[in-house]
C-alpha cells in the first residue's frame, strides 16, 4: 500500500474512498454524496485528486488480492485511520464517512466495520467517548 503524509488531503481522501469501495461496489449515490457534502473542499482535495486517490486505492487493494478476492483487514483499516491525527479532521471525516455509507440507503457489513474501527480508534484518542 502506498503511504501519504499524516493529515494530508490524500490520506483523508483515501478514507472517504475506502468507505465507498469497501463493500465492493461504488454506488452513484455515494459519488454524489461526496461532491454534495463539500468534504473535499474541507480537506483541500479537488475532484481530480480525489479520483486519483480512489483509483490508487483500488489498484493497491487489487495488488493484494488473493485468488481474485479483495479483503481489507482491520490492520489495513487501522493504518489508514492512523494517517489522520487531527481531532477536527477526524470528526469531519467520520461524519462524512457515515453520510457516504448511508448514501445508498444500505449499510453494508464492510462499511459498518470501517465506521466501527474509526469510532473505536479515533474515539478513545479524540475525546469522542467520555469515560
From TrEMBL:
SUPFAM superfamilies: TerB-like. Residues 12-119 form the Co-chaperone DjlA N-terminal domain. This is TerB family tellurite resistance protein. The lineage of its organism: Bacteria, Pseudomonadati, Pseudomonadota, Betaproteobacteria, Burkholderiales.
Amino acid at each position: 500500500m502506498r503511504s501519504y503524509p499524516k493529515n494530508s488531503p490524500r490520506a483523508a481522501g483515501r478514507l472517504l474512498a475506502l468507505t465507498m469501495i469497501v463493500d465492493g461496489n461504488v454506488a452513484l449515490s455515494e459519488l454524489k454524496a461526496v461532491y454534495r457534502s463539500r468534504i473535499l473542499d474541507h480537506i483541500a482535495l479537488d475532484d481530480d485528486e480525489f479520483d486519483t486517490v480512489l483509483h490508487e486505492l483500488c489498484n493497491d487493494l487489487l495488488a493484494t488480492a488473493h485468488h481474485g478476492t479483495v479483503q481489507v483487514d482491520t490492520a489495513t483499516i487501522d493504518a489508514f485511520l492512523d494517517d489522520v491525527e487531527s481531532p477536527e479532521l477526524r470528526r469531519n471525516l467520520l461524519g462524512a464517512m457515515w453520510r457516504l455509507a448511508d448514501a445508498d440507503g444500505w449499510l453494508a457489513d464492510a462499511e459498518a466495520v470501517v465506521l466501527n474501527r474509526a469510532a473505536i480508534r479515533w474515539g478513545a484518542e479524540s475525546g469522542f467517548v467520555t469515560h
